[in-house]
Structures are given as structure tokens and as C-alpha cells.
């Protein structure tokens, strides 16, 4: 089983920092796992940011995950790739990228988790925990009770694939949600505010 860090930062569009700069700042502040997520950008724009972010990852001992795009993950030799339920299936991405890369998949239900695990996902991002403005067409909110129920069902099924909570998480949510047995958390806005703070410019 590949090592999956317990905190992941997901880059966001609505900041003074570019996606690669967000990755740099996170790596500089001890976050080792950053996902580049640029839903409204062109492939060329994503590739340019991903290449810069990979340079920062190499210099600062971080790991970079690409959201959705198998081709960009391949072009920049990313450490990981995260795929949604409607993206390229995990097993097909694995055939292209090989066994060395970490590939995770999105889930909203127990059935989704089983599907992603059956296709060979190294981890599953389960969410959303609560409403989040960073994602359009949001799936039904799970909440703490939902995570407790699903994690219990996974234990009964002997499914040990790491589950990462995602979607609207605050720092105060981490301890309660980790108590469910979840492996880790993916955070965007709350982590950005904590590390970078409200700013009209990107810190150097």
C-alpha cells in the first residue's frame, strides 16, 4: 500500500496566489501533499501551473497531485492523480501511468467507494463533508454521522483503502472526523486562511 499523507491541500481559484504559488506556500509551511485543481482553466494553463508546482515539490520535498487530467499528470511526472466519478476510470489511468503513481478516486457513497477500490484506487476522497463553494454540481452532503456510518461499514467489509474526507472542512472538524477512523483530510479554504491569511497579494 502506498503512503498517503493525512493532510492534503487542494488549490483554489479565488485567491491572490496562482495555483503553483499556493503549492509553494503550502510546501514551505510543512504541507507535503498538494492537489492542483483548476476546473475552469485550459489544458495549457493547467500544464504551465503544474510544471511550476512540480519544481517547487522537488525543491521543497513535497508531493503533487493533479486533478482529473491523466495527460497532464503524465507530462509533468506528477506524484499522484485524483479522478472524479465521471473522469477516466482509475484502472484505465493505471494502464497509462503505471504502478508508481498514486491514483485516488472520488466517492459520495459506500457503493462509490467499493467501485473505486475495485478499480485499484490507492485512496478514496469521500465527500462532501459539508457545503463547499469550490465545487459546482455538489453531491449530497455526508456530515459527521454519515462518515461514522460509512467507516463502520468499511470495517465490516474489511476494506482498508485509505479514506480521505473532503469538502468544506474546517480546522475544528479534523479531530471529530479523524475519530471516525478516517485516514486523512483534504482542506482548501480553511488551510489557505490559516497559512496565508486574507491578503490582496500573494506572499513572497
From TrEMBL:
Instruction: Provide any one GO MF term from the record.
Output: thiamine-phosphate diphosphorylase activity
Reaction equations catalysed: 4-methyl-5-(2-phosphooxyethyl)-thiazole + 4-amino-2-methyl-5-(diphosphooxymethyl)pyrimidine + H(+) = thiamine phosphate + diphosphate; 2-[(2R,5Z)-2-carboxy-4-methylthiazol-5(2H)-ylidene]ethyl phosphate + 4-amino-2-methyl-5-(diphosphooxymethyl)pyrimidine + 2 H(+) = thiamine phosphate + CO2 + diphosphate; 2-(2-carboxy-4-methylthiazol-5-yl)ethyl phosphate + 4-amino-2-methyl-5-(diphosphooxymethyl)pyrimidine + 2 H(+) = thiamine phosphate + CO2 + diphosphate
**Cofactor info, note text:** Binds 1 Mg(2+) ion per subunit.
Q: Which residues bind 2-[(2R,5Z)-2-carboxy-4-methylthiazol-5(2H)-ylidene]ethyl phosphate?
A: 132-134, 168
Annotated Mg(2+) binding sites: 68, 87
The alphabetized list of GO BP terms reads: thiamine biosynthetic process; thiamine diphosphate biosynthetic process
Q: Which SUPFAM superfamilies match?
A: Thiamin phosphate synthase (SSF51391)
Q: What is its EC number?
A: 2.5.1.3
Cofactor(s) required for function per UniProt: Mg(2+)
| GO (cellular component) term, any one | cytoplasm
Pfam name, any one: TMP-TENI
Q: What does this protein do?
A: Condenses 4-methyl-5-(beta-hydroxyethyl)thiazole monophosphate (THZ-P) and 2-methyl-4-amino-5-hydroxymethyl pyrimidine pyrophosphate (HMP-PP) to form thiamine monophosphate (TMP).
Sorted alphabetically, which PANTHER family does this protein's record hold?
Answer: THIAMINE-PHOSPHATE PYROPHOSPHORYLASE, THIAMINE-PHOSPHATE SYNTHASE
UniProt lists the family membership as follows:
Belongs to the thiamine-phosphate synthase family.
Q: What is this protein called in UniProt?
A: Thiamine-phosphate synthase
In its UniProt entry, the species of origin is given as Marinilabilia rubra
Amino acid at each position: 500500500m502506498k503512503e498517503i499523507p493525512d493532510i492534503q491541500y487542494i488549490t483554489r481559484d479565488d485567491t491572490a496566489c496562482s495555483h503553483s504559488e499556493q503549492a509553494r506556500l503550502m510546501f514551505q509551511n510543512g504541507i507535503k501533499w498538494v492537489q492542483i485543481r483548476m476546473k475552469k482553466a485550459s489544458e495549457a494553463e493547467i500544464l504551465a501551473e503544474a510544471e511550476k508546482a512540480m519544481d517547487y515539490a522537488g525543491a521543497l520535498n513535497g508531493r503533487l497531485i493533479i486533478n482529473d487530467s491523466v495527460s497532464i499528470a503524465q507530462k509533468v511526472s506528477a506524484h499522484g492523480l485524483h479522478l472524479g466519478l465521471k473522469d477516466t476510470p482509475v484502472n484505465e489511468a493505471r494502464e497509462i501511468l503505471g504502478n508508481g503513481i498514486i491514483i485516488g478516486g472520488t466517492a459520495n457513497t459506500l457503493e462509490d467507494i467499493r467501485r473505486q477500490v475495485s478499480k485499484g484506487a490507492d485512496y478514496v476522497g469521500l465527500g462532501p463533508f459539508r457545503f463547499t463553494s469550490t465545487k459546482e454540481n455538489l453531491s449530497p452532503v455526508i456530515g459527521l454521522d454519515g462518515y461514522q456510518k460509512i467507516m463502520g461499514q468499511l470495517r465490516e467489509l474489511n476494506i482498508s483503502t485509505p479514506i480521505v474526507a473532503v469538502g468544506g472542512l474546517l480546522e475544528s472538524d479534523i479531530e471529530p472526523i479523524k475519530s471516525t477512523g478516517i485516514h486523512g483530510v483534504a482542506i482548501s479554504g480553511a488551510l489557505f486562511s490559516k497559512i496565508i491569511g486574507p491578503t490582496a497579494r500573494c506572499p513572497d
